[in-house]
Amino acid sequence: MNYRTRRVFATTLTLLAVGLTALALEWTRMRMGDESTLSGWTLIASTAGLYLLSARKQLVGPRWGPVAMWMQMHVYMGTFASIVFLMHIGWPIRGVFESALAAVFAFVAVTGMLLGRLSRTMPKRLAAIPKDHPLERVPALQLAVAREAHQVAMASAEHGEGATLAEYYQRRLLPYFQTPRRWVYLIVPNGLRRRSLLRELNDLDRYLAEHGIQSRRSLSAMVQAKDDLDFQHALQTRLRTMFMLHVSLTWALALMIAVHVVLVYRFQGAML
Predict the structure, then answer these.
(1) Is there a single domain that holds both residue 228 and residue 141?
(2) How far apart are CA 230 and CA 16, in angstroms?
(3) Which of 144-148, 154-158, 189-193 has the lowest mean pLDDT?
(4) What is the mean pLDDT of residues 57-61?
(5) Before 92, cis peptide (omega within 30)?
(6) Which helix (H) or strand (E) holds 182?
(7) Distance (Å, rounded) from C-alpha 182 to C-alpha 187?
(8) Which one, of 80, 73, 12, lies nearest residue 43 by Cα?
(9) Which of 1, 66, 71, 248 can pair with 5 through a Cys bridge, CB separation 3.0 to 4.6 Å?
(10) Is the peptide bond before 175 cis (omega within 30 degrees of 0)?
């Protein structure tokens, strides 16, 4: 099956599972059964299925299927679990622990959706950059570009018209190369500062002779290289942070669900 057919099939299967679950809960309610127990164990089973993706990543070998397939299963199973969660909780939510459990589940669902969105869009955005680098190498490459830009700017000061370029470097480019981007850029990376600096550098050509123009072109290339590295660092840091947050919340959710089950059955035992 192609991608669109698989997506339609998986969506239909998920909606069918939701419909069957809703019918089962309604059937239990009409017969005066405990629908919260049914929805609770359905939620536990579907939530446990979400941990299969982590287990698959630990397994080596093609017989278990590609990780991408397991990722799609994770997405649709997470959607099913989120809908069952809305069926299971009572409104309004009462109790401190129950409110905390519901909040953690909601945070896991939201971070999962954001993580899936980033996983799909980030490769396309990184493909626009000439060369992709691992996150661990980016700081060293940023430092290398900053040192090279400093050498070019200082060398240009030895020439008469180069003083203009050196003064501009000291005033505008040195903070750009030497300081990290602000947290706003990490959330919404953009090329506004890059375009502004390149435009200002191009305007300096009227004051420069041939050697100064050559230095200006070198600095322009380094501005672009620094911006590409900043862009990669922002995207990869955002993805890694979201992944770590999602995983930590997921394991916290597992512990809270276990406590919740124990409390529910102890309360039912006390009532009997």
Answers:
(1) yes
(2) 45
(3) 154-158
(4) 61
(5) yes
(6) none
(7) 9
(8) 80
(9) 1
(10) no
- Report how many domains make up the chain: 2
Give the C-alpha separation, 66 to 243, whole Å. 20
Least trusted range by pLDDT, from 15-24, 232-241, 258-267: 258-267
Q: Calculate mean pLDDT across residues 37-44.
A: 89
Q: Specify the residue for token string 């397939």.
A: 69
Lookup result for tokens 């239909």: 12
Q: Do 123 and 145 have their domain in common? A: no
- The 8-class DSSP code of residue 59 comes to -
- In angstroms, the Cα distances linking 189 to 115, 118, 193 are 17, 13, 10
Residue 95 neighbours by CB distance under 10 Å: 10
Cα dist from 182 to 51, 230, 232, 234, whole Å? 35, 11, 15, 10
User: Do 158 and 194 belong together in one domain?
Assistant: yes
| Alpha carbon distance 92, 98 (integer Å) | 11
Q: What angle do CA 31, 34, 38 make, to 5 degrees?
A: 110
Give the C-alpha separation, 71 to 61, whole Å: 16
Structural domain containing residue 226: 135-237
pLDDT per residue as tens digits for the range 2-25: 778 888 888 899 999 999 999 998
For residue 84, give both structure tokens: 């069952």
Token digits for 53? 């993706």
Mean of the per-residue pLDDT values of the chain: 85
